[in-house]
Amino acid sequence: MAVHVRTRAELDKQRRTRSHRCWDHLLIAALWPMHGDNLGTLLRTCDAVGACLVVPPFRWVDEALARGNTLRKASCVHRTGDPLGWLEKQRATARVIGVELADEAVRLADLPSARERTVVVLGHEATGIPAEALPLLHQCVEIPMIGTGHSLNVAVAGSLVAYRLSGML
Q1: Strand order in the sheet with 139-142
Q2: Overall pTM > 0.90
Q3: Which of 42, 43, 78, 169 has its CA 20 to 30 Å from the CA of residue 33?
Q4: Is Transferase there in the keyword field (predicted)?
Q5: Tens of pLDDT, residue by residue, the chain (169 residues)
């Protein structure tokens, strides 16, 4: 059996013709970023799954997003200068899930697709989600690993969880 690789024209016919408007259904919140390159990757993933990206309003973050936006189209990016206050407000209207190694964390494979407004909280790559933010989470999800590393980088972890919650994985 021959393998048919779809052309760009075929792919374009089955995808959105323009960037999504803010659906506000799935938000990927990189509230304590460490590396700008990861933000560009997360922005690309958010476009792929129809999610919005939430970041702090730092100049270096905006520059990283501009550099990393390989789509060259406007993407849905929200900014917050008060991560804890923003999370507290989101908790009232959304399911807030932290990607964190916690005793009560659900394995990624067991995480159901988002059926309600959902916020995915990603921590700092070196220190994780700050302790004062943990009580604002409804649930934690962990990504099991066999190797010697303690965690995946924030772009990879955020992308895996975004795909899982979007129902595309």
Answers
A1: 77-79, 52-55, 26-30, 118-122, 95-99, 139-142, 106-107
A2: no
A3: 169
A4: yes
A5: 788 888 878 776 776 555 556 767 999 999 999 888 889 999 989 988 989 999 999 999 989 888 877 776 778 899 999 999 999 999 999 999 999 989 999 999 999 999 999 999 999 988 999 999 999 999 999 999 998 988 899 999 999 999 999 998 7
